[in-house]
Amino acid sequence: MSTDADSAAALAEACVAWLARAGVTDVVLAPGSRNAPLLLALWSAAPAGGPRLHTRIDERTAGFLALGLTKSGARAAVVTTSGTAVANLHPAVLEAVHSGIDLVVVSADRPARLRGTGANQTTDQVGIFSPFVTTHDLAAVAALDAVPVTAAGPLHLNLQLDAPLVPAAPVGRATTEFVVETADSRQERLVNGEPADLQPGPRTVVVAGDDAGPRARQLAEAAGWPLLAEPSSGARTGDHALRTYRLLLGTDLGARIERVVVLGRPTLSRPVARLLEREDVEVLVVPCPGVWPPAPPGSTAIGPPRWAGDGPDDPAWLDEWRTADRALARRVDRFLAEQPALTPYDVAAATHAALPAGGLLVVGASSPIRDLDLVARPTPVGSRRKVIANRGLAGIDGTISTAVGAALGRQGSTRNLALMGDLTFLHDQTALVLGPDEPRPDLTIVVPNDDGGAIFSMLEQGAPEHAASFERLFGTPHGTDLASLCAAARVPHLRVTSRPELEQALASPNGGIEVVEAVVGRADRRQLDARIRSFATDPEE
Ligand SMILES: Cc1ncc(C[n+]2csc(CCOP(=O)(O)OP(=O)(O)O)c2C)c(N)n1
Ligand SMILES: C=C(O[C@H]1C=C[C@H](C(=O)CCC(=O)O)[C@@H](C(=O)O)[C@@H]1O)C(=O)O
Ligand SMILES: [Mg+2]
């Protein structure tokens, strides 16, 4: 049995104080018995300046909610009971590891003496997120005080909580005030290091992957280079960013590239991946958050890049890209306007167009973020249109939760939107289940529903020779009635089948969390995609 000084209640209170020192503003908790001391200590701390609380039933949802909160400026912890509850956090923790998000996991555990004895709900939680996340296995307050409050990525505190877990009397307001300290931002942590001076000369482009930040745009503008910025780069702004870069890489312009400066984590497209692997191209990579940052074979890691030229590089190079981009974008838009039915590209374009200055858009993996990459015009610098996505591992899991968390975490957001496919939406449907007292954001979730996984149609397995197995193995139609699913969770739902209906729905938000289902086709997706890709190289009729 632990001493009073290290009782479950004392350890729990010390943990809440540690969370405040760590800058944790929000705690997502899932109900349990072993973590009861933590839950009660958090309840007691909330009115005394402690973290904002969010309760979720499903720990996988809870983990992604905490991830979304942290990705949009809060710092969140997720607290679970012991056993499989902790294992349900693994997807969110892995995404945090690979995208460098400072998520805090607090897992309740039985005392070490019960490990290996067959005690109920007891497994080995020490190192459960290894090799990337170290577990601080804690049985005493003093040990907790020695845990650092920041790390490059997620932190895991495993608290050995011994009976008694629940005090005899109800807990009241905490006697001490909690001052939540401000944690430094991840990007600031990254900017340090010896600057790398870049000289003019080679035909250069800047590739801005996920979470690259504005410095990618600033470098492209200072040097006068074309900017190939993914939607969630934080750099797809200004007049150097090119909308159709992915297609242009397959043209003579792409072939003439001699140098690439990479910021953030490019994950979206094979043309960019192929560019970074070309032996005739010098690839300079700037450090980015997360483990395993981009390191294509033959690339060179550099410090924060600094333009060393007197004035911009060759303006003709940028002009060629801009001229080709404008022409190709016009051709794509004309082609999409000619389509008889609502396309996923229309859904992405309308959703992005509905994002006001100061707004937030969370994008799911698979086709939606790639559709957005093709149709989203770069936005004005300084308009603070924030686009985020879970690109650390590009999972389709936890996307609704990430969007709810990001909407709750972003201060002063003028509008919160999410865009995700139907399988992505279904994968995290438990995120729609919120208790009556839970903080609830205004969030419009747009779902291009093509009854399955369209992206596979555009990959090798979507080729005609695989038609016999495709639907069962990859298309995975489900026929789910999203309206009924939303009704079960009492979430407002609207189904649209045309762009005017979609634009009308986006222009008249319901308030709270709402779902706008846009019914689109999937059967012709491979042909649509191939036709659009052909525009870059086939002359216009
Ligand atoms: C957790 C997880 N499971 C499976 C995958 C593989 N995967 C990638 S895209 C996709 C289908 C997504 O379908 P949907 O969300 O409907 O988007 P669409 O491509 O149809 O627009 C799947 C299963 C993944 N990336 N992550
Ligand atoms: C479906 C999965 O992920 C794949 C999705 C798309 C990627 C891709 O190549 C899209 C086409 C393009 O960008 O040109 C594909 C890839 O990176 O090769 C991903 O594996 C999945 O199950 O992981
Ligand atoms: Mg789909």
Automatic annotation (TrEMBL):
Free-text remark on how the cofactor is bound: Binds 1 thiamine pyrophosphate per subunit.
Record has Signal as a keyword: no
Record-annotated Thiamine pyrophosphate enzyme N-terminal TPP-binding domain positions: 11-127
This protein's pathway: Quinol/quinone metabolism; 1,4-dihydroxy-2-naphthoate biosynthesis; 1,4-dihydroxy-2-naphthoate from chorismate: step 2/7; Quinol/quinone metabolism; menaquinone biosynthesis
EC numbers for this chain: 2.2.1.9
Keyword entries, A-Z: Magnesium, Manganese, Menaquinone biosynthesis, Metal-binding, Thiamine pyrophosphate, Transferase
Top-rank taxon: Bacteria
InterPro entries per the UniProt record, alphabetical: MenaQ_synth_MenD, THDP-binding, Thiamin_PyroP_enz_TPP-bd_dom
Swiss-Prot/TrEMBL cofactor(s): Mg(2+); Mn(2+); thiamine diphosphate
A Pfam family it matches: TPP_enzyme_N
Reactions this protein catalyses: isochorismate + 2-oxoglutarate + H(+) = 5-enolpyruvoyl-6-hydroxy-2-succinyl-cyclohex-3-ene-1-carboxylate + CO2
Annotated function: Catalyzes the thiamine diphosphate-dependent decarboxylation of 2-oxoglutarate and the subsequent addition of the resulting succinic semialdehyde-thiamine pyrophosphate anion to isochorismate to yield 2-succinyl-5-enolpyruvyl-6-hydroxy-3-cyclohexene-1-carboxylate (SEPHCHC).
The protein's assembly and partners: Homodimer.
Family to which the UniProt record says this protein belongs: Belongs to the TPP enzyme family. MenD subfamily.
The protein's name: 2-succinyl-5-enolpyruvyl-6-hydroxy-3-cyclohexene-1-carboxylate synthase
Organism: Nocardioides aromaticivorans
UniProt gene name: menD
